[in-house]
Amino acid sequence: MTEFLIYSKRCFINNRFVEATIHVKNRRIHEIYFSIQKIENIPFLDYDNLIVMPGIIDAHVHINEPGRDHWEGFNTATRAAAIGGVTTLIEMPLNASPVTTNVNAFKLKQKASENKLHVNCGFYGGVIPTNTIDIESLIEAGVFGIKGFLTHSGIDEFPNISKNHLEAIAPILKKHNIPLLLHCEVSDNDVPFVNNPKSYQNYLESRPQHWETNAINIALEIQKQFDIRVHIVHLSASNGINRITERKESTNRLTVETCPHYLYFYAEDIPDESPIFKCAPPIREKANNDKLWKFLLNDGFDFLGSDHSPAPPERKQLESGDFFKAWGGISGLQFTLPILFSECKKRGMAIEKLIPLLTNNPAKFLGLDSKKGALGIGFDADITVWDDTKEFKINEDTIQHKHKATPYLNETVFGKVIHTFVNGAHVVKDSKIKTLEQGQLLLKDR
After folding, report:
1. At residue 125, what are phi and psi to the nearest 5 degrees?
2. Which of 303, 268, 389, 290 lies closest to 347 in space, CA to CA?
3. Could you tell me the residue ranges of all domains in the chain?
4. N or C of the chain: less Cβ packing under 10 Å?
5. Which helix (H) or strand (E) holds 3?
6. pLDDT confidence of residue 117
7. Superfamily of 3-52+380-394+414-433 according to CATH
8. Cα gap 145→182, rounded to integer Å
9. Which long-range contacts (CB under 8 A, 24 or more apart) does 347-355 make?
């Protein structure tokens, strides 16, 4: 269908639910009628009381192609995204091989995505100690931001950087108004001796909160010194909240995200010998995560992203149970909406507050908010339709990721995606893939 009408009593428009009919034509939203509206010879899709909202934008995803597509890959990742109501994602500069630290590698990644994008996809570039001279060319080639690690990334080809490297590239980021995304951990020797590598408590203690807060201090110093856009990815340490809040009072160029797994799981509940839960920074205790929720409820987080980082079962050490040898990453791109919505129900957070954190807010961060992240006339017809009353169990049969291993397996959650439209194409119908290769390659406008 190139032209059709979508009706629901609960369309999320201008941050509230209204009855509306959305007229889609030529892959964009052509008109919005604030009533039920049928037009002769135009297909009419009646979604009654289902939620119709902008497509989810996930600004933190690892797809691993080229080079490690046996870990995931564009085909399976973007299928999973579509099933989960994600219509746009931005892919990180690691864990592909080569890593995206120069324009040639960036071109290889774009080539690798051809004929495999079932949702829209853009990319970040990366900063490592040896490529500070490549940063401007990456920006000019269309990356949406520059990502760096202040501790070992887990990928030897993507070593960590220091404050000196950040100072070297900050003027370039300032010139182009491009965000610096930082993995905020700084390792030190002030950690307990590991006597049981299969113990989650040992793993948690090996990456203490002060690793994060010390790195956050560096991020804030760079932001203040150069007045650049700095984004703190996947905050897990509640001890960092006060200093982030204080700096935000003086600038609108500091942003911060967290991820579903930090809001859904608690360290106390993670069994030993279960590295399926391993990520960095680690999932912390309930008391810590309650503070993350308080920050979320008080509008502290700018948006939420999955930090989808899958790996084969052998890399996750599922048989050995060794947290210290396992790859650190959570596979969960497909489940962001139901996981977060289920917790919102428990915490009393309204859907109206959750949706912008997944749509308009990341669109603003990426500079896509003139065409994505909202249901508005002239916007791309990226639309997610879901049932907030539907309870279901996450099982292997429905997982679209290359590997089925995820800590969300067998969780019972609320909020099932029924339909996903990408650029006006009906990609997911009745919770099943209907149409493929409807996503577009996105480059940051210069």
Report:
1. -100, 170
2. 290
3. 3-52+380-394+414-433, 55-366
4. C
5. strand 3-13
6. 98
7. Urease, subunit C, domain 1 (2.30.40.10)
8. 10
9. 347/293, 347/297, 349/296, 349/297, 351/51, 351/388, 352/12, 352/15, 352/16, 352/17, 353/297, 355/12, 355/15, 355/53, 355/54
Radius of gyration for the alpha carbons in the chain, expressed in angstroms and rounded: 21
- Cα(310)–Cα(124) distance, integer angstroms: 18
- Superfamily of chain region 55-366: Metal-dependent hydrolases (3.20.20.140)
Indicate whether 279 pLDDT > 80: yes
Question: Does this chain's domain 3-52+380-394+414-433 share its CATH topology with 55-366?
Answer: no
Strand duo 180-183 + 146-149: pairing: parallel
Torsion angles phi and psi, residue 312, rounded to 5: -60, 155
Residue 255: the pLDDT is: 98
The Cβ-side half-sphere exposure at 162, using a 13 Å CA radius, reads 3
As a whole number of angstroms, the distance between CA 251 and CA 266 comes to 32
- The DSSP bridge pattern shows strands 146-149 and 125-126 to be parallel
Give the pTM: 0.98
- Specify the 3-state DSSP secondary structure of 118: coil
In whole angstroms, give the CA distance from residue 121 to residue 105. Answer: 16
Beta-strand (E) ranges in 26-162? 28-33, 44-46, 51-54, 56-61, 86-91, 120-123, 125-126, 146-149
Per-residue b/e over 378-411, b at no fewer than 16 CB within 10 Å?
Answer: ebbbbbbbbbbeeeeebeeeebbbbbebbbbeeb
- Answer whether 6's CB lies under 8 Å from 52's CB: yes
pLDDT digits (tens, 9 = 90+) for 169-196: 999 999 999 999 999 999 987 777 778 9
The DSSP bridge partners found for residue 21 are 7, 33
